[in-house]
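Title: Comparing notes on inverse folding

I've been comparing how different people in this forum approach sequence design from structure. To keep things fair, I'm posting one structure and asking everyone to reply with a full sequence. Here's the target:
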């Protein structure tokens, strides 16, 4: 059944807070006409490791919080987290040549999956690889994720983040994964990355395994635009509707200055999909 969600990635900014100030998430969510959230476990909260991926935050000054503690906070706020986005650094750790870093990546993944279990999430989003790694072994990366996640009952989805390996493309990776993934595995289709890679038409051929859509973008003169490229986001939503898409749709604003922007974007998504 179709569910309309909003990502918590930078949601606190809608109330003038820093994106990592999780305590303001319930304040925003309770003002929105949505079914629930995609809760994002941020590497900026990690008490052990600094973020591997770029961040605008001052890591040393951010209040740290454990995965279980923040999950319990969201649960106690009576917000339905249908989806959980695993710490975005996991793919970077798993792509490392350092066994210690790989182990740390597996630990973070398992901690996040335990947090998703606390939240009773239905779906998990994972960045499977390091965007900047020029040589990727997709089979090996998937096997590492599978070994950690096989004890859980979530739908596990891989997002179409950019790829630097010149022998691969998102289409090639998805085709490879499509052919051997277990039944409960699938994809999160991020429309911004489709715009970046110009591959929306190719990736929707996997529609039967797409369980989540990221409508990632920002408002420019009242038009919802992707961060990169010129893909018409609303046209994509109409195409997905024509394909009878009936799973999760997640608004992921890359910039937001007030709650009204969230409301307007959600209304646009509902009107088109």
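Reply #1:
Here's my take.
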């Amino acid at each position: 059944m179709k569910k309309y969600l909003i990502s918590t990635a930078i949601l606190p900014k809608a109330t003038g807070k820093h994106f990592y100030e999780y305590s303001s998430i319930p304040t925003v969510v309770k003002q929105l006409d949505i079914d629930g959230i995609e809760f994002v476990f941020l590497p900026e909260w990690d008490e052990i490791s600094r973020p591997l991926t770029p961040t605008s935050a001052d890591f040393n000054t951010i209040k740290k919080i454990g995965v279980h503690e923040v999950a319990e906070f969201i649960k106690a706020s009576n917000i339905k987290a249908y989806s959980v986005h695993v710490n975005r650094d996991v793919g970077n750790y798993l792509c490392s040549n350092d066994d210690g870093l790989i182990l740390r990546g597996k630990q973070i993944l398992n901690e996040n999956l335990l947090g998703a279990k606390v939240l009773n999430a239905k779906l998990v989003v994972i960045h499977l690889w390091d965007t900047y790694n020029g040589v990727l072994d997709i089979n090996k990366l998937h096997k590492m994720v599978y070994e950690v996640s096989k004890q859980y009952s979530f739908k596990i989805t891989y997002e179409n983040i950019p790829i630097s390996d010149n022998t691969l493309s998102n289409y090639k990776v998805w085709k490879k994964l499509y052919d051997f993934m277990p039944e409960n595995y699938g994809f999160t289709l991020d429309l911004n990355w489709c715009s970046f890679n110009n591959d929306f038409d190719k990736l929707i051929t996997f529609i039967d395994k797409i369980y989540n859509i990221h409508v990632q973008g920002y408002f420019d003169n009242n038009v919802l635009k992707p961060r990169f490229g010129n893909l018409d986001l609303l046209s994509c939503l109409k195409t997905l509707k024509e394909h009878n898409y009936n799973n999760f749709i997640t608004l992921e604003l890359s910039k937001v200055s007030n709650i009204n922007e969230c409301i307007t974007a959600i209304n646009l998504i509902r009107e088109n999909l």
